[in-house]
What we know:
The chain has 87 residues and is an alpha+beta fold. It has a domain at 1-33 and 58-68: Alpha-Beta Plaits. The two termini are 22 Å apart. It has two helices and four strands.
Amino acid sequence: MYVLIVYDISVERVTKVHKCLKRYLNWRQNSVFEGELTEAQIEIVKNDLRNIMNNETDSVLLYIARDEKWLRREEMGNQRGTTSNLL
């Protein structure tokens, strides 16, 4: 599955969320991550985020598609993150 996660998290938790998502996905720009995950990995990420976020003040959006080819991305301006996975 191809996943795009966008979040609006309180300042005191934003670093924890960033570190959590960086383990699984590619950072694209402030508060945006994307990449390929299995269904099991999606559930792990969601559980990790639930343990960090405050449901009263924080917000996380997950956009999930079967494959990246079903998404069209257009970039404008300064490219912040990269999706390359160099080993």
